[in-house]
Specification:
21% helix; 29% strand; alpha+beta
Length: 174
Amino acid sequence: MTGYGWVEALEAYCFTAIVGLEADEAIRRLGGDPAGGDRRTFDECFWAAAGPQWVQIGQVSRGVLLAEHNGWRAEEAVHELSAGARVACFVRDVNAVMRFILAVDGRVVADFDPLVDAPPASLRSAAAGLPFGLFAAEPSALALLHRVTGIRVTPGWLHRSRRAFQVPAFTALV
């Protein structure tokens, strides 16, 4: 689990690792335009509810990584994102409400709160030795995300200016 303590300094985020899907298709499945976008750091993607929501995205060695600063769109779209793919998503809001989801081929196979719940049976092997709960929920969840996808979230990745795209406003989704 070493190397994930830095995540506890962040207040609200959603990190999503996708194996088996290209970045452009992930953007489309979240309602974005692969031809548009900008280059932004994680901090520059901070979503103030009154403004546009930006999502950092990048092709990594084993798949695609999405990073939302104060957002949760990927959490709401795990079914769509995982069609024909494997998705692990870890989200934390400003109230420390957390959720870890693993979805494969459009179906959620695990869903739990790393702060208050033990990992479900489907993740017990992958979660072995990770001390979830009050004092290690966030680092443990990121370690689990890495274990089930092979994709590691790092401060260096987040702080580097990289491809980012806008997701539609909530009003466009209803």
